């Protein structure tokens, strides 16, 4: 009887642990785990409600922005309208009676002219020598290159393919409808590959610039190549972005992205591939910690109390950071963060022991204590932020591109994707025209000239 009771107790304990794991799984959402927002069921209400009582949109007293009128010197056309009759007595206004009664009401209309690709035919004629009878043919200018399409058209196709996430087939149709130029799907892909070659040198410069940066934000996301699992790595600074498609998310891929001897500070999440980095040269993302503490706060009993205490610490930390954005005093920030350090350590220490039943609970506390210096780098080093939002925002466009295109279909397609994503995001960070840069790069390649640089 005693043995049977003990067996039942062990079985009950196993079932309780299983129920606890399943309940945690059911509670997971994009707000308390690494799940993307797209996995949240419709109407789940998993997003937190607005903490501010302010209404969305412009606030009272906000100085609005209106479209400014273009100066007369820059107008392409001015069309004047005069009234034909008096609105009061009905008198006819002849040409001689048109005397302006004040400044005219002005309305400017911006419109596209009829768009059509301009097709030029370059003819290389041959002439036969009257003396020796040899026939000589003229040479076409070297800047024409070997493509049947000009740099601006090629740049437009490449920009549509990545920045605007238009498929090859849709780009082919758009060229016919918008530009009056028939392009096959194969021609669109050939243009993309030609653009990829033109961006090889600027992309290599970006990769090197990121490796020499004092602070970088790093993140990674899934990728596909012909259905095979791959990983898109991203390293971003305040002015550069470098994307790299690798085999997986293993730590061996990190040196390829940032360099084996990277001497700066890496901001990232707590993915194990970054464990090879010195915690003193890291900054882990507090936005991810906020999400994890929210997960624990939705638990039961001791776990709930732990999570709620962690959420209060996160709120206090972000309030201190917001205040620092206003006053800019690093010493003051460090003083405000010091009591939060003590409170967090006092919260974590009791939960790192083996006696803590919840394994995830225990592992989380141990992980934070192991990375302890990496939690507070932002309070001591200029240029470091408490979150990894720069990398998260930089990857957002790439993730949408991946979902639309289903990744790449070949290794050359991967090279085009990582180069175009890097150039596109860098131009956005530098407030530079992506279209203009692509035109420069493609033109330079056709003339065998040095490629333009973003560094």
Write a compact overview of the structure shown.
It is built from 13 helices and 7 strands. With 455 residues, it is α/β, with parallel strands linked by helices. The strands form 2 sheets. Strands 5-4-3-6-7 form a 5-stranded mixed beta sheet.
User: Terminal Cα separation, in Å?
Assistant: 78 Å
Largest sheet: 5 strands, mixed
The structure class reads: alpha/beta
Helix content: 40-55%
Strand order of the largest sheet: 5-4-3-6-7
Number of distinct beta strands: 7
**Averaging pLDDT over every residue, what do you get?**
84
Calculate Rg over CA atoms.
Answer: 31 Å
Uncertain parts:
none
Which percent band covers the strand fraction?
5-15%
Features:
single chain; alpha/beta; five-stranded mixed β-sheet; 7 strands; 13 helices; 455 residues; 44% helix
Walk me through what this model shows.
The mean pLDDT is 84. The protein has helices at residues 2-27, 151-162, 168-179, 185-198, 200-211, 254-258, 286-297, 301-327, 330-348, 359-370, 389-405, 411-429, 434-446; strands spanning 126-128, 135-137, 215-225, 228-236, 241-246, 265-268, 282-284. A five-stranded mixed sheet has the order 5-4-3-6-7. It has 455 residues and is α/β, with parallel strands linked by helices. It has 13 helices and seven strands. The protein is extended, with a radius of gyration of 31 Å. The termini are far apart.
Write the layout of secondary structure elements.
Elements: H1 2-27, E1 126-128, E2 135-137, H2 151-162, H3 168-179, H4 185-198, H5 200-211, E3 215-225, E4 228-236, E5 241-246, H6 254-258, E6 265-268, E7 282-284, H7 286-297, H8 301-327, H9 330-348, H10 359-370, H11 389-405, H12 411-429, H13 434-446
Parallel strand pairs: 3-6, 6-7
Antiparallel strand pairs: 1-2, 3-4, 4-5
Helix pairs in contact: 2-4, 2-13, 3-4, 4-12, 4-13, 7-8, 8-9
